[in-house]
């Protein structure tokens, strides 16, 4: 019922998203908000309303809803499917729930917002047209995410690779992207120098292996299974895809594997999940294909309901 409701072209189903998020908050209040990784969030700006927990929860709800709806719009506006669907917004919320800590002040999902906007610009680049302006704009937008999550500095290599994949090697466009990426940080560094304030550090990797507990391993297992279903769904979709869609999915696939590799590395050597949390973007796209795939049959639907149930009841399961 849930799958059919969100897969259909009914925009009013987005009204159910606040209700879904309220279930996660209810589960957190009844059970335990378990931190996935070390849960150390950093930013270049002060935490918002750090002493008022209910305001934090409200801000998190708003940002997750904005990201979910925006990501769904990116999917539909770029015609990743022949018809509009709103499953992407629901999947984003489900996956993001593993990285959301309702009791902690965090700008993580504001950083997600800028990454979604940056990917939207890169996906819209056409190979036959000059991309100087989009390249600069994408660089600035990804650069703005560093204010809210400095560790997203490590996205620069993949952003450059995505531009090369979309347009080929054009040195001026790559330079414009790099200039745009560092422009917000240049303003921050100049301000810090003039005011004498300390710069934030990028302590991502540690020389010590992070020993994940069984709760974190269970979350990783679900994410790994979701990767499997996402790849299977993508392969089924590409069998009858247009050249434009193949180019777009190629760009998103490169981003996905980069995030999986780098995010896994930063998790197992440091316990950091801020980079790994970005898998919610490509997984939301590709798992939708898995749900629509006739070759996967009922298996993808069954896994979706298991994943949804686990994400909702993990607060009580982890309580014991």
Can you put this structure into words, describing what you see?
The chain is mainly α. Helices cover 65% and strands 0% of the residues. It has 12 helices and no strands. It has helices at 2-7, 17-30, 53-77, 87-96, 108-123, 132-148, 156-167, 171-195, 214-238, 243-268, 280-292, 298-317. Helix 4 crosses helix 11 (280-292) and helix 6 (132-148) packs parallel to helix 8 (171-195). The longest helix is centred in the C-terminal third of the chain and has 26 residues, at 243-268. The radius of gyration is 19 Å and the shape is globular. The protein starts with a helix and ends with a helix. The model has no long low-confidence stretch (mean pLDDT 85).
Low-confidence stretches: none
If helices are DSSP runs of H or I spanning 4 or more residues, what is the number of helices? 12
Beta-strand percentage range: under 5%
Topology as H/E string?
HHHHHHHHHHHH
- Strand-pairing-aware structural class: mainly alpha
Task: State the gist of this model.
By secondary structure, the chain is mainly α.
């Amino acid at each position: 019922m849930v799958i059919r409701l969100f897969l259909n072209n009914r925009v009013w189903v987005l009204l159910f998203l606040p209700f879904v998020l309220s279930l996660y908050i209810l589960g957190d209040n009844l059970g335990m908000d378990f931190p996935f990784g070390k849960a150390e969030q950093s930013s270049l700006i002060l935490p918002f309303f750090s002493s008022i927990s209910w305001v934090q929860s409200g801000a998190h709800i708003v940002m997750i809803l904005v990201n979910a709806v925006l990501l769904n719009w990116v999917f539909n506006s770029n015609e990743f499917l022949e018809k509009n669907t709103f499953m992407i917004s629901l999947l984003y919320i489900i996956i993001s729930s593993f990285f959301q800590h309702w009791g902690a002040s965090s700008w993580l999902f504001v950083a997600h917002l800028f990454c979604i906007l940056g990917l939207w610009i890169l996906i819209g680049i056409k190979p036959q047209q000059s991309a100087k302006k989009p390249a600069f704009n994408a660089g600035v937008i990804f650069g703005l995410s560093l204010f809210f999550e400095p560790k997203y500095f490590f996205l620069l290599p993949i952003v450059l690779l995505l531009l090369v994949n979309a347009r080929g090697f054009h040195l001026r466009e790559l330079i414009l992207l790099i200039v745009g990426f560092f422009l917000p940080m240049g303003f921050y560094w100049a301000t810090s120098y003039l005011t004498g304030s300390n710069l934030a550090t990028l302590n991502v990797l540690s020389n010590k292996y992070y020993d994940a507990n069984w709760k974190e391993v269970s979350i990783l297992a679900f994410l790994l299974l979701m990767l499997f279903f996402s790849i299977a769904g993508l392969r089924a979709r590409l069998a009858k895809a247009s050249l434009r869609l193949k180019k777009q999915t190629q760009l998103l696939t490169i981003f996905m594997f980069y995030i999986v590799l780098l995010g896994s590395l930063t998790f197992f050597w440091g316990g950091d999940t801020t980079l790994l949390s970005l898998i919610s973007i490509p997984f939301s796209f590709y798992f939708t294909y898995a749900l629509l795939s006739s070759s996967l049959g009922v298996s993808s639907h069954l896994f979706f309901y298991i994943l949804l149930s686990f994400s909702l009841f993990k607060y009580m399961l982890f309580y014991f």
